[in-house]
Amino acid sequence: MAEIIIVPTIFISFYLIIELFVHRKERLMIIEKATANPSFEGNDILKKAPVPSFSGLKLGCLISGLGLGFLTSALLNICFHVTIYEYQSWWYSRSIDIACILLFGGLGLIVAYLIERRTQKPKA
Fold first, then answer.
1. Domain boundaries, the chain
2. Is pTM beyond 0.90 here?
3. What is the pLDDT of residues 87-113, one digit of tens each?
């Protein structure tokens, strides 16, 4: 039974490794053509400016939103005097916690998206 899985896995792995090396050679040949001939069609791809990464901004806004969600849920639990010992109050407390965390985490990502869109150059 194991042969049914092992043999195709080995074959596919071997094929993908060979394909990886073949495509690498093709890419190197395209780069050599682009650098040798300035009128090469693919040359504009090499000249494009790199797109800035906003992963730090997204992560920071997400963590800030989650922290704000935790703070808001704690304040709401304090304001409504939710006790953990009662089952129904415990359920409401946890639902408030989850809702605030997800809401403010999502708002943090929306803020990150708006900041990212504002800082990117408009396409002409």
1. 2-47, 55-119
2. no
3. 556 666 677 888 888 899 889 889 988
